[in-house]
Design goal:
It is a single chain. It contains 44 helices and 10 strands. The protein has 995 residues and is mainly α. Strands 1, 2, 3, 4 and 5 form a 5-stranded mixed sheet that branches. The termini are far apart.
Length: 995
């Protein structure tokens, strides 16, 4: 009979002991299997100390129920009398559901946890081999493997061994398992075994003695003939043995699986033979291997099979590993490898990824391995296969800062411990932090976080991941600064040679100059030097992520020399999170933006303002320009001020374009390239219009005061009228005037010509600011015709003489400056020409086609590749624009939506009106946007306009980076451009030429 109140006090006690379901726990404690120990307070205290008391109690009941009548009292008596067993057994049962299942299936295996001798505390490879010695088939091997794993897990969860020891023991157990599997395979095929030598080389974490609980075991197989056998037959025999070994470990049986054996790190990966001879391995590595393969070989360790052959393999590949940093393509390979591989992680899982996510284990391992490759060629002390040992050696040699190494090591241990506990629960291969509250609670408690396990775990995990994110890049760069700065006495530092090697490995073409820049920036005891020492490790990483790190560093030095004594500059970079990264991107993306910035370094302030990179409206620009002109003492001073505004706004536009194209750590690259193109085109066109308006005001005021003797309007045509100007575009315009009442026509014409000449002069005066060229060649009669006409003269000309191409050129005409009413009347005049009633006749269509064909054959520069010329090449800007314009001239009279000066807008309207299929419209739009971006990229990178891809490798790579291509993929970029424009040309042939 239950005593009143007994149940509630038991319930409360169980709750306080960490049970989440006290009612179920009470029923389990009352089970017959635990009758002899249910009231023993030692048991409840021990259960309370586990990661999951509910899980531990359930596992204990299952284990006790599985015992024979004779064995159960032995288990329970030992449990309450021997603390080592109690802690180990309950610790495992509370942390691993999978090992609890194993014990329930093999109830006598608890004896593996009883012994507590010195050798048992730290078993080595020999002890594990002994534990697997009686396994002669795959099923027995799995049972013996789990029994050995049980002892590792028990000592791990009890804290008897630390993370590094646990990982090393798991690697030793894997080694013993591979040897046992090979023994079983050889016994099954004695003839194969007799005619070949086979060595098993462990790679990855197994090779590095730092294995997880559940991980693919990466291997490479090396074979050779034995006893005078034929080599080809011997390799076939070795391949059969290797395949059988892999199946023994990997296949699922009634006892589950052990782990997959993965041989994909072998030469040629899955496409290569499973087993090669040593000479075949060496031939591949000397001729074909990629840098990542040498990085993988850092971990290579002979673990099973023929020991002499394994040792020969290691001796042969070791020199190749440490020479990898001298390979011609090392820098490009490193830059590709440094880009995080998270594309295959579902977006919903990125934040839970311990291995590949931001601030994850891969960051630490890659950083350490890269530094080993760079510096290990001249320092054998770095030749360690184990991440934590290598990190310690790097710190001891001065290759990374001691404090950074200590923080990174702590973070790595914590993240690996999380990974171990997550995998241990169900013995499944995963790197994802669980989402379920109960799983997080167990995980936190298993790591010693008992007060608020979920909250404490989340906080600690985020803190350590943040440390990895922060130090992962700094690890490369901080020692470079220490190499050129004053260090504390006794602190190790990089030698100039080692610093140069590291800079080379990170993509700097002139490490000597880079070190001089670092010394100039970081030396000294000033506040400026101190802040820059803090900033530079991160900046150097961003520079190295660009196509021209040297230019980025040099430009940063120039800006810092110009602004270093300005208090707001260093404060901006230090305190405004995005400003430093934005500056690094802008300074290393090409010549144009840095050149604009150097002429007025204070424009750096735009990079720290969240709104600073937004384009300004035409109204705001005109207001500022006209106000600056109005304050000036002369026309020259007024236009100089206007050109200064233009320079600053060009920098704003270029910086926004670069940052939007590259993306930042906090803001991904713009996904819609069309939006970037439209933004640049509108911003530069508005800026050009405002600058011309300012020049017009200055020229008029200097000669005539406030009023010109004739009404005067400037009409933008071409890209200017279409709001599609690029960074290097001239301003195509038409000039129109109309004499004021009482003014002689000749006097009016002379005034108009004078103001045009003065505007051109003012906008091209040699100054620090880029000139603005005004081009009026699209006027009636071209260069042979008068520069400016009256509105009535335009009307007479167009009525009598207008050619089809002139009507076509007027499709993109739009007033941009001067007399608004005159501009509107000019548009009213030309609308019937560009949108002819009933559309173009057949003769006019043929004339346009003939003109386009002649232009293609005559105007393409000699020697230019027609598949890569953005303007006149196949499927380029001209093809798309003429196709769209022909549609406008044929249909805009009846489709008002086509009456726009903008190419993309007209194309979208044509599709909406059913004049062009959606798929074809998308093909044309994609080609036009891509060609425009290439032109913008060329100007940003080279600082001068161009219609073709650059030939110089770094410039071509920079264009690729702007377009979103990774380092080393310019071939892919050119192929994509050709493919995109080839498809566009097929559409043009159909729509324009009617093919």
């Amino acid at each position: 009979m239950t005593v009143p109140g007994r149940r509630s006090s038991t319930f409360i006690r169980l709750l306080r002991s960490g049970f989440t379901d006290p009612s179920a726990a009470a029923r389990l404690l009352d089970s017959a299997a635990l009758a002899s120990v249910r009231t023993d307070p030692v048991l409840l205290d021990a259960l309370a100390a586990t990661a999951d008391p509910d899980l531990a109690l359930l596992g204990l009941v299952r284990l006790a129920e599985a015992q024979s009548e004779e064995e159960r009292p032995v288990l329970l008596d030992t449990l309450v009398s021997a603390k080592p067993l109690r802690d180990r057994l309950l610790g495992v049962l509370g942390a691993s559901e999978a090992l609890a299942d194993h014990l329930a299936r093999h109830p006598r295996d608890w004896h593996a946890l009883v012994t507590y001798e010195a050798a048992d505390l730290h078993p080595g490879l020999a002890e594990f081999e002994l534990g697997l010695a009686q396994a002669h088939d795959p099923i027995a091997l799995r049972v013996a493997y789990r029994r050995c794993l049980l002892s590792i897990a028990a000592r791990d969860v009890c804290g008897t061994i630390d993370l590094a020891e646990t990982a090393a023991e798991l690697a030793d157990l894997a080694t013993a398992t591979l040897r046992a599997a090979l023994r079983i395979a050889r016994a099954a095929a004695p003839q194969d075994a007799a005619q070949c030598r086979l060595a098993v080389i462990a790679m990855g974490k197994c090779g590095g003695n730092e294995l997880n609980y559940v991980s693919d075991v990466d291997v490479i197989f090396v074979g050779d003939a034995a006893n005078g056998a034929d080599e080809a037959k011997a390799i076939q025999a070795a391949t059969r043995l290797a395949s059988h070994l892999m199946r023994i470990c990997s296949e699922t049986t009634v006892e589950g699986t052990i782990w997959p054996v993965d041989a994909n790190l072998r030469p040629e990966g899955r496409n290569g033979p499973l087993v090669r001879t040593l000479s075949s391995h060496l031939a591949y590595y000397q001729r074909w291997a990629k840098t990542w393969e040498f990085q993988a070989l850092l971990k290579a360790r002979a673990v099973a099979g023929d020991p002499d052959l394994g040792a020969q393999y290691i001796d042969a590949i070791t020199p190749l590993v440490w020479q990898a940093a001298e390979r011609e393509n090392f820098v490009a390979d490193v830059q590709k490898m440094r880009r995080r591989v998270v594309d295959n992680i579902p977006a919903s899982q990125v934040d839970r990824e311990l291995k590949l996510g931001p601030g994850g284990l891969r960051d630490v391992e890659f950083a350490v391995q890269l530094l080993q490759l760079v510096h290990g060629r001249s320092d054998a002390g770095l030749h360690s296969r184990t991440t934590l040992d290598a990190l310690q050696a790097l710190a001891a040699g001065g290759y990374v800062g001691r404090a950074d190494a200590a923080q990174l090591g702590d973070a790595y241990r914590f993240l690996r411990a999380m990974e171990h506990r997550i995998q241990l629960y169900r013995l499944r291969r995963t790197h994802l932090v669980p989402e379920d509250e109960a799983d997080l609670r167990r995980l936190g408690r298993s790591l010693g976080l008992r007060t608020e396990p979920v909250a404490e775990l989340t906080k600690a995990w985020r803190r350590h991941a943040s440390v990895v994110r922060r130090l992962h890049e700094k690890l490369f760069y901080r020692p470079l600064l220490d190499a050129v700065a004053q260090l504390a006495p006794g602190e190790a530092r990089l030698s100039p040679r080692a610093a140069g090697q590291r800079l080379e490995a990170l993509g700097y073409a002139d490490p000597a100059s880079a070190l001089r820049h670092l010394e100039a920036l970081a030396s000294g005891v000033t506040r400026k030097a101190a802040i820059q020492r803090t900033l530079l490790p991160v900046l150097l990483g961003w520079f190295a992520d660009s196509a021209d790190p040297d230019a980025g560093l040099l430009n940063f030095r120039k800006v810092s020399d110009a602004l270093g004594k300005t208090p707001w500059y260093l404060r901006l970079l230090r305190d405004e999170g995005a400003a430093a990264e934005n500056l690094a991107r802008v300074l290393s993306a090409g010549r144009l933006a840095p050149d604009l910035l150097m002429r007025a370094p204070e424009a750096v302030a735009l990079l720290g303002d969240p709104e600073g990179l937004q384009p300004r409206t035409l109204e705001a620009l005109e207001q500022e320009v006209l106000a600056a002109v109005g304050r000036a003492d002369s026309a020259e001073a007024g236009v100089a001020a206007a050109r200064g505004v233009r320079r600053r706004e060009l920098f704003r536009t270029a910086a926004a374009d670069i940052i939007g194209s590259y993306g930042t750590e906090d803001s991904p690259a713009e996904e819609d390239p069309g939006a970037l193109v439209d933004r640049v085109g509108s911003a530069v066109s508005d800026l050009t219009a405002a600058t011309i308006a300012g020049a017009l005001r200055a020229a008029v005021r200097d000669h005539w005061g406030e009023t010109l003797p004739t009404r005067f309007a400037i009409i933008g045509v071409g890209r200017f009228g279409g709001h599609e100007l690029g960074y290097g575009s001239d301003a195509d315009v038409l000039f129109v005037h109309e004499p004021r009442e009482g003014v002689d026509e000749q006097e009016a014409a002379k005034a108009a010509q004078t103001v045009i000449a003065e505007m051109r002069r003012l906008l091209q005066l040699p100054t620090a600011d880029p000139p603005l060229l005004i081009d009026a060649d699209l006027r009636p009669e071209g260069r042979s015709g008068p520069l400016v006409r009256t509105l009535s003269s335009y009307a007479a000309y167009y009525r009598r003489w207008a050619l089809t191409w002139e009507s076509q050129a007027l499709l993109r005409a739009e007033p941009v400056a001067g007399d608004l009413d005159l501009g509107r009347r000019f548009i009213d005049l030309i609308d019937p020409l560009r949108y002819p009633e009933e559309g173009l006749g057949d003769d006019a269509v043929r004339e346009i086609r003939r003109l386009k064909a002649r232009m293609e054959s005559e105007r393409l520069p000699r020697g230019a590749d027609p598949t890569l010329h953005t303007k006149l090449g196949r499927g380029g800007l001209s093809d798309v624009e003429w196709t769209v314009q022909l549609i406008q001239m044929r249909h805009a009279w009846s489709q008002p939506s086509l009456r726009t000066t903008r190419t993309r807008e007209a194309l979208a309207a044509a599709q909406a009106a059913g004049l062009i299929p959606a798929e074809e419209a998308q093909i044309l739009d994609e080609a036009w946007v891509l060609a425009t971006r290439v032109r913008n990229a060329v100007m940003l990178v080279r600082g001068r306009a161009g219609d073709t891809f650059p030939s110089e490798a770094r410039e071509l790579s920079a264009v690729g980076r702007y377009l979103g291509y990774a380092e080393g993929t310019v071939g892919e970029m050119l192929d994509d451009y050709r493919r995109t424009t080839r498809r566009a040309r097929a559409v043009v042939d159909d729509l324009f030429y009617g093919a």
